[in-house]
Design goal:
Helices cover about 45% and strands about 15% of the residues. With about 425 residues, the protein is α/β, with parallel strands linked by helices. The strands form 3 sheets. A 6-stranded parallel sheet has the order 1-12-11-10-13-14, sandwiched between helices. It has a 4-stranded parallel sheet with strand order 3-2-4-5, sandwiched between helices. The structure holds iron/sulfur cluster. Iron/sulfur cluster binds next to helix 2.
């Protein structure tokens, strides 16, 4: 077999991008806490917010009720401007009580939200004040507010806040950026070791305190397409982003790994030899789903920012037909390779005007619509088959070994639809 890029991964012309700025229907950035607290067990997330925020977190991560909690909400009730001074004092009191009770917390994130009382609070300043008072703890802040962030942007804001804490260093290293499940991290670690690439560090790693050195020698691969701000602050530290598609599917992962191999001077023959068995296994896993997915139309509503890479994966590796690919934000530089690999003429939309998009879904009647939880039920009631975008964030989908599982996520609702029709 050959590990060369197939015809399908040859760039097409860049698509025209429609921009919509209307009503949005998407989770806020607080949602990221659900996977970030699992990734960094020594970090604690204190949401400075309202009862709505507490409710969102409890329902999104209800399972945590049974575990030692690693996030909480400091409820800020309605109050007038005159009460702002007490707000700072109240925050200090909550943080002090928390850190006294839980000395094992090494990094505390104060997470901002949307209530106007919280917006008036200067959280970065509060974090610095609290940090000065407790030099043994690291206290940082970022915004997960629904006004400023959607869904996966919470992770971007969190990681961007963490970058300045990392030690500087200019030794040659590869940094994989974006929260990945531990199992996927282990697989990539083995693969890069086989290729002779190293040292390899992951950001975030399994500890919020053990941060990788970042400097001019650091070359980084984004594992997630929604880390625009994180990439910006890494580049400001002198790190270099390696241009690559994202590691979804056999071809996407091969191209992603190849970008690192080239940067680290790994011979193409060696790369092909190492990657071949992984890539073959991934292709066999994908083949099992091809019959159900090939030729089927798919519409992506804007949600996780994974839309463009996933549309590329589904079209290039499984023959699906993207009717329209909508994404909350389009980082054209980070997605350049992905956009070029979409089938020519694929409509791409940045932003949302939810009613207009729903009308286009109804007109197109795609075989599958990927959307948020709130839109799925009404569309199902109209006889359309949907896939919840949030599952794509909570399921391991990166890399060779997960390629089949990723395809399965799209095949399953179509299988269910076919069964119901019979
Ligand atoms: S941050 Fe804003 S959008 Fe998110 S749960 Fe709290 S109030 Fe709602």
């Amino acid at each position: 077999m050959s590990a060369a890029a197939p015809e399908r991964l040859r760039p097409a012309s860049l698509p025209q991008v429609r921009r919509e700025r209307g009503q949005r229907e998407v989770f806020c950035g607080l949602t990221g806490i659900v996977w970030l607290h699992r990734k960094m067990p020594d970090a604690f997330f204190l949401v400075v917010g309202s009862r709505t925020c507490a409710h969102l977190l409890q329902s999104a991560a209800g399972v945590m009720i049974f575990a030692e909690p690693r996030f909480a909400t400091a409820i800020i009730e309605e109050r007038d401007l005159a009460g702002l001074a007490d707000l700072d004092a109240e925050l200090d009191r909550v943080v002090t009580r928390l850190l006294d009770r839980r000395p094992e917390i090494r990094t505390l994130f104060l997470v901002g939200s949307c209530p106007s009382e919280v917006i008036k609070l200067d959280l970065p300043r509060a974090a610095r004040r609290l940090q000065d008072a407790r030099p043994g703890s690291r206290i940082l802040s970022y915004s997960g507010s629904g006004i400023e962030t959607t869904f996966t942007e919470g992770e971007d804001a969190c990681l961007a806040a963490l970058v300045p804490q990392a030690p500087t260093g200019d030794v040659s290293s590869l940094l994989i950026v974006g929260a990945l499940p531990d199992i996927v991290e282990d697989q990539f670690e083995r693969l890069f070791a086989e290729l002779g690439i190293g040292p390899v560090r992951f950001f975030p790693g399994r500890s919020a305190t053990d941060l990788p050195p970042i400097g001019p020698g650091t070359r980084f691969l984004l594992a997630q397409p929604f880390l625009g701000e994180t990439a910006r602050v890494l580049e400001a530290r002198g790190a270099e982003r390696l241009e690559a598609p994202f590691p979804f599917g056999a071809e996407g992962t091969t191209a992603w790994v190849r970008a690192a191999a080239r940067a680290f001077g790994v011979d193409e023959m060696h790369l092909r030899q190492v990657v071949a068995p992984y890539r073959e296994r991934a292709k066999r896993a994908l083949e099992r789903h091809r019959a159900r997915l090939e030729g089927k139309t798919i519409f992506f509503m804007p949600d996780s920012q994974l839309e463009v890479p996933l549309a590329r994966f589904l079209s290039a590796e499984l023959g699906m037909v993207p009717v329209e690919v909508c994404t909350p934000f389009l980082h054209t530089r980070h997605l350049a390779e992905e956009l070029a690999l979409l089938p020519a003429g694929t409509p791409v939309t940045e932003g949302q005007d939810v009613e207009a998009q729903l009308d286009r879904v109804r007109t197109a009647r795609p075989d599958l619509t990927v959307c948020g939880l709130g839109l799925a039920n009404p569309l199902e009631a109209e006889g359309l088959t949907t896939k919840w975008a949030i599952e794509l964030v909570f399921t391991p989908i990166h890399g060779f070994d997960q390629a089949g599982d990723l395809a399965e996520l799209f095949a399953r609702p179509l299988r269910r639809r076919d069964v119901l029709r019979v």
